[in-house]
Design a protein that fits this description.
Layout lengths: L1 H13 L5 H10 L6 H8 L1 H14 L10 H8 L23
C-alpha cells in the first residue's frame, strides 16, 4: 500500500500535475499524516529508493513499481532527506547533526 503512495506521488510530480508541495498538502488535507514527499524525506530518500528498486525487481519489472527518475536524481545528488539536510525539502542542520 505505502509503495504506491510514494510511486503515484512521484508520478504526479514528474508529470507536472502539481508541485510536490501541493501534492503533500492535498494528501495531508485528505487525512494522511504526511504527504509522500515529506514522508520520503523522513524515511530517507535513498532508503525509499532502494526498497522501490528491490520491489521493482521482485515483481519482474512491473511498471507500477518502476523507480522514479526524480527520486534517482535526489539520491545521486546526495539529497537523502532530513538526515542529509535536503531531500525534496530543505532542513536546517544543527552542528551535532553534521557529525
Amino acid at each position: 500500500m505505502a509503495r504506491h503512495y510514494y510511486v503515484e506521488g512521484l508520478k504526479l510530480a514528474e508529470e507536472q500535475v502539481a508541485p510536490l508541495e501541493v501534492i503533500d498538502e492535498l494528501l495531508e488535507s485528505a487525512g494522511f499524516r504526511m504527504g509522500p514527499f515529506r514522508l520520503m524525506d523522513l524515511i530517507g530518500v535513498d532508503s525509499n529508493y532502494l526498497v522501490t528498486s528491490a520491489m521493482y525487481e521482485a515483481f519482474h519489472y512491473d511498471a507500477k513499481f518502476r523507480p522514479s527518475r526524480l527520486q534517482q536524481q535526489k539520491v545521486d545528488a546526495g539529497h537523502h532527506g532530513r538526515k542529509s539536510g535536503r531531500g525534496f525539502y530543505e532542513y536546517p542542520t544543527s552542528p551535532t547533526s553534521a557529525k
